[in-house]
Amino acid sequence: MQEIYGYELCRWKLVLVTVGVICSGGFLLLLLYWMPQWRVKATCKKTTLKDCEVVLLRTTDEFKIWFCAKVRVMPSLGASPLQNLDPIVHKVPNGHTVHFCESAAEENKNYLKKYLPVSRAIRYFTHHSVKYFWNDSAQSFDVVRGLDDSTFCSSIHNEHSRGLTKEMRDYRKMFFGINEIAVKVPSIFKLLIKEVLNPFYIFQLFSVILWITDEYHYYALAIVIMSVLSIVSSLYTVRKQYVMLHDMVAAHSIVRVSVCRRNQEIEEILSTNLVPGDIMLIPSNGTIMPCDAVLLSGTCIVNESMLTGESVPVTKINLPNPSEYPKATGDEIYSPEAHKRHTLFCGTSVIQTRFYTGELVKALVVRTGFNTAKGQLVRSILYPKPTDFKLYRDAYWFLLSLVVVAGIGFIYTIVNSILNEVPAHTIVIESLDIITITVPPALPAAMTAGIVYAQRRLKKIGIFCISPQRINICGQLNLVCFDKTGTLTEDGLDLWGIQRVENARFLLPEERACSESLLKSEFIACMATCHSLTKIEGELSGDPLDLKMFEAIGWILEEATEEETALHNRIMPTVVRPSKQLFPESKQATDQEMELFELSTTYEIGIVRQFPFSSVLQRMCVIARILGEKRMDAYMKGAPEVIASLCKQETVPVDFESVLEEYTKQGFRVIALAHRKLESKLTWHKVQTINRDAIESNMDFMGLIIMQNKLKQETPTVLEDLHKANIRTVMVTGDNMLTAISVARDCGMILPQDKVIIAEALPPKDGQAARINWHYADTLTRCTSSSPAINSEDIPVKLVHESLEDLQMTKYHFAMNGKSFAVILEHFQDLVPKLVLHGTVFARMAPDQKTQLVEALQNVDYYVGMCGDGANDCGALKRAHGGISLSELEASVASPFTSRTPSISCVPKLIREGRAALITSFCVFKFMALYSIIQYISVTLLYSILSNLGDHQFLFIDLAIILVVVFTMSLNPAWKELVARRPPSGLISGPLLCSVLSQIIICLVFQTVGFLWVKQQPWFERWTPESDACNILDATNISSAHSGNETLDDEHNIKNYENTTLFFISSFQYLIVAIVFSKGKPFRQPCYKNFLFVTSVVVLYVFLFFIMLHPSELIDTSFELVCVPYEWRLRILIIVIVNAIVSVLMEEAVDRLGVCFLSSLFGYREKTPKAKYMHLAQELLVDPEWPPKPRTTTEAKVPSQENGSYQIITLT
């Protein structure tokens, strides 16, 4: 959702802005570049949307981001792309037919104006790759939708199946544009300009120019080198991401396709020219779909791995025409999601097509370009919702406070310099210099160092990162969503066994399904025929469950060739038969091989018609005929509860529910089978048109197939580690809900004693409001009319935890499927936070629903990680604070992190590295802040006597101390295990501010003591080249000692006793705070294990002690130090030692007692926690109506009700 405002260009404002840009030396232009809303308001005046030339857009989320877009005008005959142009005159006076150009060229506009008085101007703008057209009736800008919006299934067949004329195609193309998902890779020059215009780099440029003016060349060069390296690294990463995404999207995106025109003419065109309404012919050898299309005739086998993440061929059948089935439920609006069994999605691969001879496989184009499913996925990658992180928000506030301090110093310097009659040139340089001292230009490079080192460590353990800033955020993760199949569990299913039913009684479970006694049984016939398997290049492929089931019986599948299909003028049935090895061994003599072959071919089953698996119906069905039999058979398989409800009750065992519950509790996936002999009057032709409901009734229940989805070996251990670290885990899967719940129990996500509440949400229907039925999973299968009331101990207990962090880990969990989740999002907004607080299992979730779940969790202040392995997880991986892809295919393009090993063991490793990087960022930020303030104090004190630090002193501090320390203190590796504590999320927190402020005060006190104490010394005087405090008693050597220095000119007054004293004290202070702030356990290894840091600090300490206690004339001259008595050097040493002791003790006290001290100081009481989920958890502890009671219903009500938008009704 976005707010939209209309503006038109204002000439006098434009003139004023131009003058302002010239007067400000281009700075105003930069400001307007950074702030689009200022740019529009400064150059335009507000007007109505109908007349505007520019639109200003603002997101309605918490980020309130502004965008602007130019409104363009396009000549058109109609107002809507889907309207019928027949009533409009198509002939111009000279008799030529109107053709629409692809672009709104000037000659095209003139042509329309001249010959078509009926033409109109259509206004539109483009935002995030989507066109918004002006809608006169709604008086707003709307997205132009294709045939996926408000189009009935009957009209797809009756009105849209004839195709488009070329004129109609050209007209629609003006609205829908080129059918292409264009990911333009920006030129290096464009990326460079965008990167360089970052406010930090502009400030660095300003600083470098200032330093060069002040002849401070070396440090300016160092900053330039660091900035260039940083920019090059950033450009490389960003461009690499664009190239990867471009390559993924561009692969087979432009193909040649055949389309059927309204006059039945077949035309070959480029896929870029397709528009909604075109009839596309699907070639028999397959293609990559360049658009979203609904299948009108024929059958397709499609690989949808781009959407589902599973490289499993799916059978697509043509959309049924409601007008051909008068007994059907009636017409309905076509939806690509609801009718996905009939929809071919963009980017998916059509492997094979099956069709009747003379009939072509046709599909109606419904969506093109960025409106397709693939286009929406690419848009979510190109324009992700920004990830909010407190550290970065606080960093700006922290910098703002430094700017305020710099402003005070700036004013003080100007006033002090004017009072002391300093030249104007010096005043300008020194006053600006204090700003570059207070706000260190090296800060971005310093902050990046820890992240770069963490990225390098992650690479060593096989985790690749394309968004380094996310590493810090991963240190805050307190909830991780996991995909199930291929992530928590192994990819495939294994057949555990079968349990057949005879005479309405379960037989004992059988491990093998390919025994001789079962060879010709109906149970095995159902396993052999009831599937969607197909042969692709001689290899059997299809759904993994079907594949395992078919392999378990050892049969052979044979499909008819195209020649056979053409010969019989119809689709020849797929045939299945047992392999020779399944027949009794006694018959397999060498001289009987031919006889055996003939025997094996005598028992064959032909699959006459297939009703594909439907997730809505939770079953699939086939009609088959055994070779030689007159009557056909119907075989059905699916969810046990559904299959049992469609069978004759006398064939279903009495203990069906208890047996099923026993299997599901153990985590098995259970499939039920049923069979029915069809009437002999049903011919082959009748079967092809019969309604599914007529077949799927009065079946005989045959038994159960028990499949096992094994957990990956490392899954329970990893989840246990995360739980110990107070990190919540959630399962988000496309699988069945009961299977997901059982897997969640097996892996420890749901503990054995915990209750699972299933939320079954139903949309409004027949005047009834939307409602949620609450079931308890353990009692779900026993909820019959005769079942006893649920015991009070079955209702979850609310535990009061010692820590608010543990509140989410209570004794109950919610589970729901994607349909229920969608209904709850739409009709029960007030319930969403409560449900996601305890929601653990989300089953049958579509790709966009996974993203919505991540956003819902983020809305209650969780830091969310997402771990998945498919392209269907792309949106969620991109939206999460830390998305980890276990696949190196499409998903890795969207995911900030990609693990080389497909194992969730990468999750705790990433969180540990994230925590280490986050603590490193805090350490570096604190150190850089102290570095600025220490230098600011030194310079301000020296400015008071019209002195300053020398160039070489600045250079030593900035290069030798600060840069070396910053880049080595960031090298501490992560702590070896995850702890229950989390690092602070922001800089503006009590203990952290207390730490920084206390160290600032200590440094200020000790520098001031040194500055004032040196003036009290008996040998102190205003230093001149003739001064010699070192040899004050040896008057005879005064003239000889400095005879060579009399010619030296010190115009900046660098050489003096105050300068030398402050240089030594401040140099030691930098090292003291570096050690104090280098925190180790529990998030990083101790600093003494950081060899480079320890070595650097020791070398710098030794060097400083050496030049202070054993002065060298060469070093003193280079650093512009003056000679002071040895006893004063010892006193400086005492100041430094006391400073070090006080700093270390103060930091230790802040670490241990900081929170308690601040609480007592400001009289804090137990406050409402900041995180919304913790606050909500506290509220729910005292809510008597939560969790919902078993077998109750929550109905949606009008929001005006006092108790919110829902009420709970107990059903009896």
From TrEMBL:
Compartments where found: Early endosome membrane; Late endosome membrane; Recycling endosome membrane
Pfam families in the record: Cation_ATPase, Cation_ATPase_N, E1-E2_ATPase, P5-ATPase
Domain of life: Eukaryota
Enzyme Commission number(s) of this protein: 7.6.2.16
Chain ranges of the P-type ATPase A domain: 257-381
GO cellular component terms given for this protein: early endosome membrane; late endosome membrane; recycling endosome membrane
Molecular function as annotated in GO: ABC-type putrescine transporter activity; ATP binding; ATP hydrolysis activity; ATPase-coupled monoatomic cation transmembrane transporter activity; metal ion binding; P-type ion transporter activity
Domain Cation-transporting P-type ATPase N-terminal: 153-211
NCBIfam families reported in the protein's UniProt record: ATPase_P-type, P-ATPase-V
Function statement: ATP-driven pump involved in endocytosis-dependent polyamine transport. Uses ATP as an energy source to transfer polyamine precursor putrescine from the endosomal compartment to the cytosol.
Name this polypeptide is given: Polyamine-transporting ATPase 13A3
Organism of provenance: Phasianus colchicus
